[in-house]
Every structure is written in C-alpha cells, then in structure tokens.
C-alpha cells in the first residue's frame, strides 16, 4: 500500500508569490491534515479536510488555504508569500480523522528568498 | 489548553535503554502518539496508546501512561545508533483531525 505522497519535495519562491502544494493520501483515507514545521514554532496544525470539507482550522492567516477533491487528494495554497513562510509543510492522512493514527508524508520544503 | 511538553535532548550509549518523557494538558485526550523524525524526512508513526491503558509494549518500545499526572513516556530498549532521531509525542485535540505536538526530543546514540 503506497504511503502519503507529497509533491513537490522542494520549492523555492520569492516574497509576494503564491504557491500550491499537493498531497495524495493513503488509498481509502478520507481525512487529510496539514502541518507547518519550523525550527522556532515546531509543528503547528494548519487545517483538516474530510469529504471535501474543511473540518478543523488552526491559527494561521487567511493567506493559507486548502481544498480537497472527490478522490481525497488535497492541495494547500499560500498567497503573498513572506519570508516567515519558509518551512517544511507536512501532510497526514487517516481513515476518518477521528481517533485512528495519522500517517505522514515526507513533506514539501518551501524556501522563500 | 493545548500544550505538550518534552525535554529537548537525550544522549545515551548504544545498548542502553532510552526514556523520553512527555507531559500534556488536555485531559479529554483519548489517544496519545509517538512519532519519529529522521533528517530530511517526515514523521514516522512509532506507536500509540489509548487513554484507558497504562502500558503498551511493541517489540523494543514500551509506552507508559500516567493519566492522573498527564505524563507519557517512551522507553526504547537496547538503543541502537539507527535510533538517533527526533521523537515527538502528540495528543489528539478534541477528537478531530488535529494533533498537538511537543517540541520534540533529539535522541543521540553514541557507539
């Protein structure tokens, strides 16, 4: 069974640009959660999607958005990039997002110049 | 509140046992998790424990849960150099798809 796949693995952007990251969950998993990992703030929850609906949201500005497609694949978008958005963005999937464990991808490393 | 605390560093000798500690604040947490992160990689699920359990053993890993003190620990028996990594504990927030993570404990295993 394939794991969680995130693309691209690495991305370099400049301030003011926007970026879209993609996540394909484990087959059969319907919940996808996104996290931002930085040395200063650690792992912080961005949002969770289940059945194409945002079900939970973290404390991030509106520049961070996401969506989920009918095949459970998810994308997150960051607009008007800032230097502080440089981070490892991790996607995790689980069957229904309730109590079963989340399985993580290897992340997308985003660098803002 | 949402807060998970871990010590930042642990150094052990190869063959010794490692114990990584974690405290959490949400008493309604039903599941608690341990993840491992190696350089350049995502998070690998190691093990998890349901809140009505005190202990769970999985090969070299033993998880102990003291629900009264909100204290969780991960013991790695016969620690190997390949166990060097950052270990995160996490609690599930409000039964949804949000995990609250500790800062991570960097485990260094010396030969």
Q: Explain this structure to me?
A:
The complex is a heterodimer of chains A (113) and B (111). With 113 residues, chain A is mainly beta. Chain A has no helices and eleven strands. In chain A, strands 2, 4, 5, 6, 9, 10 and 11 form a seven-stranded mixed β-sheet that branches. Chain A has a four-stranded antiparallel β-sheet with strand order 1-3-8-7, with no helix packed on it. In chain A, strand 7 (64-68) and strand 8 (74-78) form a beta hairpin. Chain A is globular and about 35 Å long. Chain B is built from no helices and eleven strands. In chain B, strands 2, 4, 5, 9, 10 and 11 form a six-stranded mixed β-sheet that branches. A five-stranded antiparallel β-sheet of chain B has the order 1-3-8-7-6, with no helix packed on it. In chain B, a hairpin with a 5-residue loop joins strand 4 and strand 5 (43-50). The model of chain B has no long low-confidence stretch (mean pLDDT 92). The interface between A and B is medium-sized, with 26 and 24 residues.
Entry summary:
The complex is a heterodimer of chains A (113) and B (111). Chain A is an all-beta fold and 113 residues long.
| Radius of gyration of chain A using CA atoms only | 13 Å
- From N to C, what is the helix and strand string of chain A? EEEEEEEEEEE
Helix amount of chain B: under 10%
Of all protein chain pairs, which has the greatest interface, and how many residues does each chain bring to it?
A-B, 26 and 24 residues
* Structural class estimated from helices and strands of chain A: mainly beta
Biggest sheet of chain A: strands, sense, closure? 7 strands, mixed
Q: Level of helix content of chain A?
A: under 10%
Radius of gyration of chain B: 13 Å
